[in-house]
Structure formats: C-alpha cells, structure tokens
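Q: Convert this sequence to structure tokens.
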Amino acid sequence: EHYNRLVRFVKDEKKVELLIDVKSAFHEDDPKGYNVIAEIPGTSKKREVVMLGGHLDSWHTGTGATDNASGVSVAMEAVRILKAIGVKPKRTIRIALWTGEEQGLLGSRGYVEKHFASRPETTDEEQSKLPKWLRKATWPLNTTKGHEQLSAYYNLDNGSGRIRGIYTQENAAVKPIFEAWLKPFHDVGADTVSLRNTGSTDHVPFDSVGLPGFQYIQDQLEYFTRTHHSHLDVFDRVQRDDLMQSAVVMASFVYHTAMRDELMPRKPLPRAPKEEATTNE
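A:
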C-alpha cells in the first residue's frame, strides 16, 4: 500500500514528501470507546427499530480496510441509498458503527446491555477474572421495553467480498422471508439462506439475548488468507463493485424489515440451564 499510495499521488501530480519517525506505546489514560449512531425516523411504527451496522475499530498492523472499513462503508451506503430514494419507513432505521469489536465486541455488547437486555454480574471468583465476553452466562436475563421493539439487526464484517446470502442463526422462521427477499438478487450472486449459527462479530450480542441478529454470507476472497488482522489490510485489497452490490442488498433487507406488518420472527428467549435454575431457586 505504501508504494501504491505514492503511485496514486504521482498520477494526480501531487508533490510527495516523506518523513517517518514512529514511536508508539500502549496506555490506559483514556480507555473509553464510542459508538456512532444515526437514524432515519420511522412513521406509523416509529417506536419499533431496525438496525444495521459494523465495527469501526481495526487492528494496528494495517489500515483496517477490509476489517472493517468495508462493512462500515456498506452500512453507510445502504442508509444513503434509502435516504436518496426518499424512504419513509414505518419503523425507525438505526445505523450503529461499533467501537471495541476487536477487544471482545465491547461496543455492541455495551449497547445491548444498556438498551435491550442485561445479566447480573458473576459471583464466581474465577469467572470474574475473565473478560466479559469469555464468561459463562448468568441468570436471570433482564429485558427492557426496547427488547420488545427491536425487529432485527443486520451486520457486515467478513471483508469486502460481495454478499452471497445470510446466516439465520438457527432461526428457521426467518428462512422463507429471507429467501423471498433474496430473489431479486439471484442474478448478482446472492441466493443462499443458511440455518447455520455463525459468530465472532457484532450480531452475537443481539442473538445471545434472543434478538434477531444476523451476519451476511460473503465471498471470502483473500480475507482469511491474506488481509485479516494483517499489515496487508489496506485500501488496494478492497473490491469496489462487491461493496456496491452488498450495499444494495443490505438496503433492501433493512427496507423490507422496516416496512413489513409484523416484527421479524424470533427464536425462544434464552433460558437458564435446569441445574442453574434449580440452584438459584
């Protein structure tokens, strides 16, 4: 990327001067991260919400182009498309660009805990030594009014490859809905609805508290073999046409979710394992 950036400057007839002296250190003087949230207000069902997004942070070795500037740009473009065509959604459309995903889904977990559902702090001394995302679930699960009002969250975070479909997180009830929504996109390669449960990104905090949270299936390209968490995660690895396709698919899913008569179907709310429930009683 260093070479390619210089080439672009030369082609644009820009003067190039380089002076590099890098020193870095880790500190905890300001450990707080910030999510970025924006909305298109709803109309007849404005208290109900459809969310989309991806994480803003990245690993330090590259510039975070495919992980996850690609997902962020697709989510932003999806919202721009909806604004540009003058959509007046029944439900509020909310885009969320998360912080702290690479440290353990911190931004999305914090948002879900604050607005949708929370769990009591662990009383297990050994568990308390672990980061929250590694701890066992505690009970009871305490939900808010917002939990009832979220229809779905759509996430993009697997590189810059085009969308090929979507994971349902074992929510069989949404499968026929998603299949119908993907039909217009079969000619651009998006035609798969998987019952699989996929993890490791920001839809997980939603799914873990019984909310419909989904990650799209994407072309892997060289994401896991070359760019993921590496110094090669740079702008020149991004596939522009694939991102354009993904933005249209995402915009369509968000639009349909915002306009349908009912909230999206849900899996059963998570319950405490029997042995834990008996102990708590």
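The chain is about 35% helix and 15% strand.
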